[in-house]
Design goal:
heterodimer, A: about 120 residues, mainly beta, 7-stranded mixed sheet, about 0% helix, globular, B: about 110 residues, Immunoglobulin-like, 6-stranded mixed sheet, 4-stranded antiparallel sheet
Chain lengths: ~120, ~110
Amino acid sequence: EAQVTQNPRYLITVTGKKLTVTCSQNMNHEYMSWYRQDPGLGLRQIYYSMNVEVTDKGDVPEGYKVSRKEKRNFPLILESPSPNQTSLYFCASSFQGTGSYNEQFFGPGTRLTVL
Amino acid sequence: AQSVTQLDSQVPVFEEAPVELRCNYSSSVSVYLFWYVQYPNQGLQLLLKYLSGSTLVKGINGFEAEFNKSQTSFHLRKPSVHISDTAEYFCAVKSGGSYIPTFGRGTSLIVHP
């Protein structure tokens, strides 16, 4: 089954404790992206990746890191989480091309609470 | 540059009534337009998309949207809603020259019995 998986689905942590949220897709997509969803603000893009070893900042990258060592995986790293990073996080992937219309496939979400 | 405005943050409606969720976009080039739906405690899934051709696009669950180039709009409609349509709806635009889609802030559709 074609899908995007995220782990963990729920996480409660404390300020300053490094954490990683994993994202994996099995559709051989080039493009992957991380979003955070907050009430009243919709989806805001954190980082995206066009392909392996190619990443770039989205609209709200501060406090986050990503890596793309393999095509299927795109982990989100919070080196020193703070309470303002409490949010619902989504990973997404799609085929790539400037002229293409490809829809994005979303993971189920990770609800993060930073105390 | 591309941008999307969803004009209503929340739309309450009674079951079996018609509904329209509004979306306006701006882009200087040709666009691809999408509506995604997010059911409670789930990720987003594609509802429908406009790529080219007919301006009336039909999607899943009885939804449809009409692309209006002169008004730069892509409003989502359903003639008769069900309780199960209660969800968050996101409009998105991707310009022909862009790698990255832009999402609107979302519209919460609340269907009352």
